């Protein structure tokens, strides 16, 4: 007779991290998720490669990622949910 294991409640997955990034950072993140290089993303968005590098560098801590590949993996797996923040200024 095989021993039975005690019943355990199902393991719940942790709630995804919500990252608030700018619309431009979201555009860059989409390019990263599609496997494009900084140069390719820059050409598609009509931006300098150094500007893309800066956006990536500032976005990684917000996503809780160490590298571009890590950021793409977190977003594609659903561990990080991206919220695009509104940066429009309203003058009173």
Topology:
Elements: E1 17-21, H1 23-33, H2 38-45, H3 49-63, H4 68-77, E2 80-84
Parallel strand pairs: 1-2
Helix pairs in contact: 1-2, 1-3, 1-4, 2-3
Number of strands: 2
CATH architecture of the domain at 23-84: Orthogonal Bundle
Average pLDDT, rounded to a whole number, is 89
Number of helices: 4
Derived from helix and strand composition plus strand pairing, the structural class reads mainly alpha
Shape: elongated
| CATH-defined topology of the domain at 23-84 | Arc Repressor Mutant, subunit A
> Secondary-structure element order, as H and E?
EHHHHE
Strand order in space, largest sheet: 1-2
Termini separation (Å)? 78 Å
Quick overview of this protein structure:
The chain is mainly alpha-helical. It has helices at residues 23-33, 38-45, 49-63, 68-77; strands at 17-21, 80-84. The protein has a domain at 23-84: Arc Repressor Mutant, subunit A, CATH 1.10.10.
